[in-house]
Amino acid sequence: MSNMTSSQHAPAGRREGLVIALGSSLTIVGSVMIAPIIPKLGAHFGPVEPHADVLIPLAISIPALAIAVFAPLAGWLADKVGRKNLLIIATVLYAFLGMAPALLNDLSNIVLSRLLFGLAEATIMTCCTTLIADYWRDDERLRFVNYQVIAIGVVGAVFFPIGGAMGEHSWRTPFFLYLLPLVLVPLMMKVLWEPAKKAREAEKVAVSSDDEEGMNVVSLVISYLMIFFGMVLVFVETIQAPILQVHIGITSTTQIGSTAGVALLATLVGSLIWTLCRKILGINGCNVLLFGTLGLGLWILSVSKTYEMMLLGVIIHGVGAGLLVPNVMASVMKSLSKHARGRGIGGFTSSLYLGQFVSPLIVSFILAVTGVSINIGVAYMGYFGLALAVFWLSVWVFSREKPAILTNSKTAA
């Protein structure tokens, strides 16, 4: 791998990085870009589909379930047939399966198409992540992950309002945006290269022979639970905010899409300030901050009577969402032995997307059992986030964690 890396990585790193970053950003775009049209889907299918209140949120969130279940198989396929070719095939399928609901008239078929779309998303995510590991090493890899966060935030912030504006005409129109990734296919074919199989096998042997660190199973399970419940809270805003806006008289998909764009920009801010927050507060202190902002943001959304107040809730919530993934990922990496990193990150990814998938189901269950309004249901989720913040506050106080405990190179690796 070293010979190949020295000859191919240095001159082409930026081009490869750009293509992979754009490919990775398809996952965030695919998951939530159509959130602004949820009210129009409800208006169209509600009168004719008796289970529309369940199927519509499911159509938004079911790709997350597909990613959680299919990602391990996608990784196996990437090893068997190659990362580059599989990524290209998955990108083409992503485009056409993403566009398919625009041509469908049955809500159940739309849900099915979104499930298949999620399989393509899982493959894209797995291939892009694997190529990052193939192309970059150590600190350079970590720097590229930061570039990836920025790319995902910027691309998502651009496409959310565009999707909302296109939804003004018809709920079908935004789905045609999913054809845009087809322009990435020629770039993937030209810029990306397939790592040599023998080099990958040699690297696996080298990694497995360097296993001086044990695995902290308890910490790993706690991290999985954190990312699961954290993403449940994150997706409450994604799925329920458009509905809450309709309740206060905001029906413009442009405005709803702009709110989603602001939320993603706030998430980007949270990701960018995480390193500073970690140094000042430590990992447990960041847990307090992220769950506190997630809970407070949802509570503000639940009591908002104006668009401006709702934006405030979205911004506070978004900062917490941006802190969530890198902070929990740091704990996961600290808990894993080197030879178990691949499987450990796979568990992290599955937990993350399972949280996204069950989020609307949990809210629907709360509403069905308690009979409360959507505002009260969202408030309950906010209280849950604040309760988690209080729990981590007690852990933070009693653990007496040193704020800079993870700043040394060994822990960051």
Quick tags:
about 425 residues, single chain, Growth Hormone, Chain: A, about 0% strand, mainly alpha, disordered C terminus, 2 domains, disordered N terminus, 14 helices
> Which runs of at least 5 residues are low in confidence (pLDDT < 50)?
1-12, 207-212, 404-413
Within CATH, the superfamily of the largest domain carries the name MFS general substrate transporter like domains
Strand residue percentage: under 5%
Summarize the main sheet.
Answer: none
Q: Radius of gyration from the CA trace?
A: 21 Å
Q: What is the CATH topology of the largest domain? A: Growth Hormone, Chain: A
Whole-number total of structural domains: 2
Order of helices and strands: HHHHHHHHHHHHHH
What's the pLDDT, averaged over the residues? 79
Shape: globular
Subcellular location: Cell membrane
Keywords: Cell membrane, Membrane, Transmembrane, Transmembrane helix
GO molecular function: transmembrane transporter activity
Pfam families: MFS_1
Any overview of this molecule?
With 413 residues, the chain is mostly helical. It folds into 2 domains: 1-209, MFS general substrate transporter like domains (Growth Hormone, Chain: A), CATH 1.20.1250.20; 212-413, MFS general substrate transporter like domains (Growth Hormone, Chain: A, Up-down Bundle). Helices cover 81% and strands 0% of the residues. The chain has helices spanning 2-32, 38-45, 52-81, 83-99, 107-135, 138-166, 184-191, 197-208, 217-247, 253-303, 307-335, 341-370, 374-399, 409-412. Helix 1 (2-32) packs antiparallel against helix 7 and helix 9 packs antiparallel against helix 11 (307-335). The radius of gyration is 21 Å and the shape is globular. The two termini are 20 Å apart. Residues 1-12, 207-212 and 404-413 have low confidence and may be disordered.
